[in-house]
Task: inverse folding
């Protein structure tokens, strides 16, 4: 039988938190570059133990619900339990073609993911389980469960790669080539 201590106690250590901070420090958001190794980036994208993730937040919510129930039995009203938290993970295909960002969202909340192409690439679509879910680089939906989305990019042709003033109107690319 599950007990209160089973969902309140965490096995996260100070070393786990320091490792997560170190991995975050390897990303330069100003220049949008990664300064670490490929293995360190994979570790960061996997969600190291030092981060609070959806599972941790749901465990805390369960503990709050337990405490609210115990208070109710004693005649107190602690209010409604917090909603579930869902993790929306993102990835990029092909590797290095751009960046993507997801996050943690409360159940019923509008979740938004974003993708940005690297030089020489253009955003193509968001995929989930191999199927297209959106062709817009900023995609919003109602958070109703954990999701894993992939931002898919296409390589620009040689003609498009030398364009100055590159822009998009719908799915059409416009610009002037440098000769």
Result:
């Amino acid at each position: 039988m599950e007990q209160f201590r089973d969902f309140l106690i965490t096995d996260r250590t100070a070393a786990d938190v320091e490792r997560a901070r170190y991995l975050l420090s390897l990303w330069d958001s100003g220049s949008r570059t990664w300064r670490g190794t490929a293995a360190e980036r994979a570790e960061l994208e996997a969600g190291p133990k030092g981060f609070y993730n959806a599972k941790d937040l749901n465990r805390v919510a369960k503990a709050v619900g337990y405490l609210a129930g115990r208070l109710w039995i004693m005649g107190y009203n602690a209010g409604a339990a917090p909603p579930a938290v869902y993790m929306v993970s993102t990835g990029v295909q092909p590797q290095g073609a751009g960046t993507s960002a997801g996050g943690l969202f409360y159940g019923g909340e509008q979740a938004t993911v974003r993708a940005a192409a690297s030089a020489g690439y253009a955003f193509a679509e968001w995929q989930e389980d191999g199927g297209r879910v959106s062709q817009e680089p900023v995609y919003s939906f109602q958070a109703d469960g954990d999701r894993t989305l992939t931002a898919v990019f296409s390589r620009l042709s040689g003609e498009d790669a030398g364009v100055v003033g590159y822009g998009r109107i719908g799915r059409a690319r416009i610009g002037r080539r440098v000769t």
